[in-house]
Write a structure and sequence with these properties.
The chain is of the alpha/beta class. The chain is 28% helix and 24% strand. The protein is built from 11 helices and 17 strands. It has helices spanning 7-10, 22-37, 54-62, 72-80, 97-105, 116-128, 167-176, 196-215, 244-254, 269-272, 305-309, and strands at 17-20, 42-47, 66-69, 88-90, 110-113, 133-140, 162-163, 180-186, 222-224, 262-267, 276-287, 292-296, 315-317, 324-330, 339-347, 354-357, 378-381. The strands form 2 sheets. Strands 1, 11, 12, 13, 14, 15, 16 and 17 form an 8-stranded mixed sheet that branches. It has an 8-stranded parallel β-barrel with strand order 2-3-4-5-6-8-9-10, surrounded by 4 helices. The N and C termini lie close together (11 Å). It binds ligand LLP. Ligand LLP binds at residues 47, 49-50, 68, 91, 151, 153, 188, 191-192, 226-229, 266-270, 305, 309, 363. This is Diaminopimelate decarboxylase.
Length: 386
């Protein structure tokens, strides 16, 4: 075993696959619990979209987090993993009728509503079942996040949420709908945010909105600030737990939460990102005209983030101590964007070496596709490979 990887066990498996270090996951969850316990009225829902591997979900559920879902499939995955239904929130701009009905049947905690037409349909479907649905409005706060354009969501130009101008009108509408109970406001400005100033900007915006609503005697029980806390992709190791302390402290010192209110968070990447690696083997080392390529058996179908967002994942040769050489690390897919990294320094690579793509626990396995008729990668935990 080199570093923290059980290489001998890896040799028995077919690559590529995801490997989840459960010690890292449990340490991360324990940090979250310690920080959240400092504030009596904070509640964390795990954003299932980041990773729905059943073994990962089970560990998160054991640590008492709720589940933030964006589809009927995610609601089912959360329930299967044992998340209590009254700790499930359901967001998404395009909820289909069957998905809303599923949420109603399970009496989930809350629908985060993103438009007037959706509000009307939830009211209608709830009426048909003789139920009252809890709803929160996702407000688009028009706050930018200093992150990749494809993963910023809180700007007026994005498709998400209800605009601040429409908020009063929508709240009035909800009050007149008999099968809805308006319980809160929901926000989410983007993902992979490392500058706490972005969260401060969101807090300031929420404070303004709350003051306005209070002036109209509108009572909000729950404020949900979404997720977005980023991780350190540059230097992943067992110690690189995201900065939960600063994150929760930022909300505590900048958001004017009323004493009766609960503050909800929907963290995805920060919970699971650092515990996962994509494990691959080198198929060929190929000498090009002026560089050499390490061709892996993993490709963009297994981990699409580098191709889609030009995301950086640290690449390590975990079975070689040979002198370092420079490689373009690529996959086998018939797309020129199937590149994990250019000019990467790795311990000398040979066929069969194991290569780890680190910090791949979030938006890795779950975003895998079968393009080129490839099989989906499996996911294994360190608990299984001992
Ligand atoms: N809540 C809502 C409403 C969201 O849209 C998201 C993520 C989250 C919570 C969780 O955000 P997190 O804590 O993970 O940043 N595939 C992209 C990330 C897309 C994030 C989409 N929404 C990536 O690989 O970077």
């Amino acid at each position: 075993m080199k570093g923290t990887f059980p290489i001998n066990k890896f040799r028995e498996l077919r690559t590529p696959f995801y490997y989840y270090d459960t010690k890292v996951l449990r340490d991360t969850l324990s940090h979250i619990r310690t920080e959240v316990a400092k504030y009596g009225n904070y509640s964390v829902h795990y954003a299932v979209k980041a990773n729905a591997n059943p073994k990962v979900l089970a560990i998160i559920r054991e640590n008492c987090l709720g589940a933030d879902c964006v589809s009927g499939g995610e609601i089912r995955a959360a329930i299967k993993a044992g998340f209590p239904t009254d700790k499930i929130v359901f967001a998404g701009v395009g909820k289909a009728d069957w998905e809303i009905n599923l949420g109603l049947d399970y009496d989930i905690f809350c629908f985060n509503v993103e438009s007037v037409p959706e509000l009307e349909i939830i009211n209608e479907l709830a009426a048909a079942k003789g139920k009252i649905a809890n709803v929160a409005f996702r407000i688009n706060p028009n706050v930018g996040a200093h992150t990749h354009a494809n993963i910023t969501t809180g700007l007026a130009e994005n498709k998400f949420g209800i605009s601040m101008q429409d908020m009063n009108h929508v709240i009035d509408m909800a009050h007149d709908m008999k099968n809805l109970r308006f319980i809160g406001l929901h926000f989410h400005i983007g993902s992979q945010i490392l500058d706490m100033g972005d969260f401060v900007a969101l807090c300031n915006r929420i404070n303004e909105l709350q003051d306005k609503l209070e002036a109209r005697h509108i009572r909000i029980e729950h404020v949900n600030v979404g997720g977005g806390l980023g991780i350190d992709y540059g230097h992943p190791n067992r110690q690189s737990i995201p900065d939960f302390k600063s994150y929760f402290e930022t909300y505590n010192s900048h958001l004017k939460l009323r004493p009766h209110q609960t503050l909800h968070f929907e963290l995805g990447r920060a919970v699971v990102g650092q515990c996962g690696s994509l494990i691959s083997q080198v198929l060929y080392v190929k000498q090009g005209a002026n560089k050499q390529f390490a061709i892996l058996d993993a490709g963009m179908t297994d981990l699409i983030r580098p191709a889609l967002y030009q995301a950086f994942h640290k690449i390590e040769n975990i079975t070689s101590d040979a002198p370092v050489q420079t490689y373009d690390v690529v996959g086998p897919i018939c797309e020129s964007s199937d590149v994990f990294g250019k000019a990467i320094d790795l311990n000398g690579v040979k066929r069969g070496d194991f290569i780890a793509l680190r910090s791949a626990g979030a938006y890795g396995e779950i975003m895998a596709s079968g393009y080129n008729c490839r099989e989906l990668p499996q996911g294994y935990t360190s608990d299984e490979l001992v």
